[in-house]
Description:
single chain; elongated
Amino acid sequence: DEVYDLFREAAKAEKRPLSNLIETAALSRIREQQFVDDDEMSEILANENLLKRMKKGAREAKLGKGRFID
């Protein structure tokens, strides 16, 4: 199908196995979503109110305070 052909052509262009192309793409996507980039981190570190709330939340989580919301 079209998707397979697209992946196969991309792998061929990069001279690597299709499985490696897919694995690399999946890992890249996960890293993009799970980690903040430099600009986002700068914004977080510049926001004192947010940092205080995050520290308070971390302390409370260690003590077992609070609850999870679905």
